[in-house]
Specification:
It is a single chain. The chain is built from eleven helices and 23 strands. With about 450 residues, it is an alpha/beta fold. It has three domains: about 35 residues, no CATH class; about 210 residues, 3-Layer(aba) Sandwich (Rossmann fold), CATH 3.40.50; about 170 residues, Ribosomal Protein S5, domain 2. Bound molecules: adenosine-5'-diphosphate and magnesium ion (MG).
Amino acid sequence: MAKKKTLFECQACGYQSSKWMGKCTNCGAWDSFIELTKEQIEATKELAKASPSQVKAITDIGEDRVERVSTHIDELDLVLGGGLVTGSLVLVGGSPGVGKSTLLLKVCANLAKDGKKVLYVSAEESSGQIKLRANRIEANHPNLYLMNELILENIIAHVQSEQYDLLVIDSIQTIYSNEIPSAPGSVSQVRAVTFELMRLAKAQKLPIFIIGHITKEGAIAGPRVLEHMVDTVLYFEGDSSKELRLLRGFKNRFGSISEVGIFEMTKKGLVSAKNIAKRFFDRKHTTAGSAATVVMEGSRPIILEVQALVAESGYPTPKRSATGFDASRLTMLLALLEKKLELPFNQYDVFVNIAGGIKIGETAADLAVIAAILSSFRNRPLSAETLFLGEVGLTGDIRDVMMLDQRLKEAASQGFTKAIVPSKPLQKIPLKTFVVDSVEKIIDWM
Ligand SMILES: Nc1ncnc2c1ncn2[C@@H]1O[C@H](COP(=O)(O)OP(=O)(O)O)[C@@H](O)[C@H]1O
Ligand SMILES: [Mg+2]
C-alpha cells in the first residue's frame, strides 16, 4: 500500500513542510502548522503550475507604459508614487478601526466623480452600513457600486461582465474561493484569492485595492505570503484612539517607498493632515522622562515625544519594553549607559514609548531616548524648549544625522530654542545648538 503523503503549512507565512513543527523554521511563529487535506495539496500544486512562456532578448522587448490616475487624495497619491497605476494590485493593511474602509470608500467616490465606474466589494459590512459611512464622508455617487459578496468566483464573474475602472475588496480575509476547501482567512485561501485577483488586475488592466487586517505583531493576520504577490503594500500606522494616521509604503513596484502619507481622522473621513510637524507632539508641560526629537518621514520632518519610565525592579531580570522603538536598540543603549556612565540600570525596569502611536525607524532619535531615560532615572524634567538629535554608536560616540538643517529649521519654527546635536548645522538657524560628541557629555549638559 502506498504511504499517504502528508503536507503541513504554516498559517503565518505559508511555509510548507512534510513534518509538523511546533515552531516555524521560516518565520518563527509558534503552533502555526496545520495539516493540508488531499484537496488542498492538489490546489497548491495547481497554483504552482504555470504555462511555458516565450523567451526574448531584452533588446527586443518594449517597456510597459505605466499609466496613473489620481485618487484626489494627495497623501495617498504621494505614497503610491504619484497616483494609482492601472492594472496594479495594492494591499492596504492596518489594525481594525484605523480607517482602511473609510479611506478606500473615499477613493472610490473620488474616482466615481471623475466619471469612472467603481465597484466596492464588502464581505465585512452590509451595504446599509457602508451607505451610512458614505453619507458621513460624502461619498455618494451613481458611478459607485456596492456588492455584498463573500465568494470570489461570483465577484470575478461580475467584474468580467461589466467594465469597471476600480475594484476594492474589503477584506482579503473574509473573501473565499469555492475551489479551495479551507476556511476563509487561511493561508491557502488568501493565497488563492490574491493570485486570482492579480490575474484579474493584469487581464483587465483594472486597478484593485485589497484590504487586509494586521495583527498586533504587525503581520497580515495569517498570510504574509500576500506581500510577495501584490504590486504595492501600504500599511496604516497610528493609534485608533488618536486622530493622526500614517500610511507607509512597504513595497512598491511602481515607485519609491520613502514617502509617508499623513492623515487625520475627522467626522468627514480621513483627510490629509495639515501642519503635521507639531501634530504628534502635544506636551503642554514638561515632566521627568520626556524628551523631544525630530524624525524624518520621507522628506518631511515630524516632531515626536519620546517617553521613558525607569523604576526600581522587583525581578531578578529587570524588564525592558519599547513601544514604537526598536527593543534591541533600547537594550544596547541601556548597556552603554551602564558601562559608560556607571549607572545601575541592571536593577531598574525601563519602559520607552513614542507618543502618538508612531514607530521610529531611524537612529537619529537615540539621543532623545537616552535623554528621556536619564531624565526619568534622576526624576528631573528636561526643558520643554530643548530638542535631542543624534545617533549613538556602540562606543558611546554621538554620530551625525542626515538632514540636520531641515530638522532644526522645523523645530525652530515650532518654538524650540535649544538643540543638543552631534554637529553644528550648516545654515544659520534661529536656535541655540550644543554639540555633544559622546554620551558622557550629555550628563555634563544635564
Ligand atoms: N461618526 C463618526 N465620526 C468620526 N469618526 C468616526 C465615526 N464613525 C467612525 N469613525 C471613525 O472611523 C474609524 C473606523 O474606520 P474604518 O474605516 O471602519 O476602519 P477599518 O476599515 O480600518 O477597520 C473608527 O475608528 C472611528 O475613528
Ligand atoms: Mg473596515
